[in-house]
């Protein structure tokens, strides 16, 4: 079976499973999505969704976020990992959004990645999910499954993203990366039983 054939099976089966895919992180606009994605590093989406309501109740805009003390932000996000650094990043991010972008979330990768705590993956999520720009954010689920399905030989998420963009049609990127994440969580967890991972079995892997 060729790589293209395997990719076609993956696309077909994921579309059957997840014809519609919700965005896992709760948000109301590009700024709250940006904050939620930045907070999700080394933390589960579920945990982020538990703590963001209290944060957004007092700082749902860059203007309000910049007025909080770092200690106040930290207190609101203390249950997630790396809270100290994330609190500093959120305050500085908000300040820069106000100073450079009139309080709006920029719509280019370069400007997003210039913000504190915003790497390429975070920028890709915001570009794809907030602005509809084709992107393929790669997390550990996607990297692991793409490797398992022999769709990449990438040694890191950057190489896996490159391969994903080559093999999957551009118009599917924004939906497909979420479908793979949902599949990984439901059928092929990194730890635990993977008996339900039928796509891998279909690919004879």
UniProtKB/TrEMBL annotation:
Gene3D superfamilies: Helix-hairpin-Helix base-excision DNA repair enzymes (C-terminal), Hypothetical protein, domain 2
Cofactor binding, note field: Binds 1 [4Fe-4S] cluster.
Keyword Nucleotidyltransferase in annotation: no
Domain of life: Bacteria
GO molecular function: 4 iron, 4 sulfur cluster binding; class I DNA-(apurinic or apyrimidinic site) endonuclease activity; DNA binding; DNA N-glycosylase activity; metal ion binding
InterPro entries hit by this protein: DNA_glycosylase, Endonuclease-III-like_CS2, HhH-GPD_domain, HhH_base_excis_C, HhH_motif, Nth
Domain HhH-GPD: 39-186
Cofactor list: [4Fe-4S] cluster
Gene Ontology process terms (BP): base-excision repair, AP site formation
Known catalytic reactions: 2'-deoxyribonucleotide-(2'-deoxyribose 5'-phosphate)-2'-deoxyribonucleotide-DNA = a 3'-end 2'-deoxyribonucleotide-(2,3-dehydro-2,3-deoxyribose 5'-phosphate)-DNA + a 5'-end 5'-phospho-2'-deoxyribonucleoside-DNA + H(+)
EC annotation from Swiss-Prot or TrEMBL: 4.2.99.18
Keywords, ordered alphabetically: 4Fe-4S, DNA damage, DNA repair, DNA-binding, Endonuclease, Glycosidase, Hydrolase, Iron, Iron-sulfur, Lyase, Metal-binding, Nuclease
NCBIfam families to which the protein is assigned, alphabetical: nth
Role: DNA repair enzyme that has both DNA N-glycosylase activity and AP-lyase activity. The DNA N-glycosylase activity releases various damaged pyrimidines from DNA by cleaving the N-glycosidic bond, leaving an AP (apurinic/apyrimidinic) site. The AP-lyase activity cleaves the phosphodiester bond 3' to the AP site by a beta-elimination, leaving a 3'-terminal unsaturated sugar and a product with a terminal 5'-phosphate.
Protein family: Belongs to the Nth/MutY family.
Name recorded for this polypeptide: Endonuclease III
Organism: Marnyiella aurantia
Name of the gene: nth
């Amino acid at each position: 079976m060729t790589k293209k054939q395997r990719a076609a099976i993956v696309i077909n089966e994921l579309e059957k499973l997840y014809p519609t895919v919700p965005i896992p992180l709760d948000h109301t606009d590009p700024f709250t999505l940006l904050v939620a994605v930045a907070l999700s590093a080394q933390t589960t989406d579920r945990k982020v969704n538990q703590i963001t309501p209290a944060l957004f109740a007092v700082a749902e805009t860059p203007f309000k976020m910049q007025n909080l003390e770092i200690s106040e932000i930290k207190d609101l996000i203390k249950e997630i990992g790396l809270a100290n650094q994330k609190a500093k990043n959120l305050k500085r991010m908000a300040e820069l959004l106000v100073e450079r972008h009139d309080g709006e979330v920029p719509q280019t990768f370069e400007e997003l990645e210039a913000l504190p705590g915003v790497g390429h993956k975070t920028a890709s999520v915001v570009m794809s999910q907030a602005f509809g720009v084709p992107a393929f954010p790669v997390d550990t689920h996607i990297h692991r499954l793409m490797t398992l399905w022999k769709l990449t030989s990438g040694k890191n998420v950057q190489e896996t993203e490159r391969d994903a963009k080559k093999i999957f049609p551009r118009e599917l990127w924004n939906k497909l990366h979420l479908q793979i994440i949902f599949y990984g969580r439901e059928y092929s967890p990194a730890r635990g039983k993977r008996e339900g991972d039928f796509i891998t079995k279909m690919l004879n892997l």
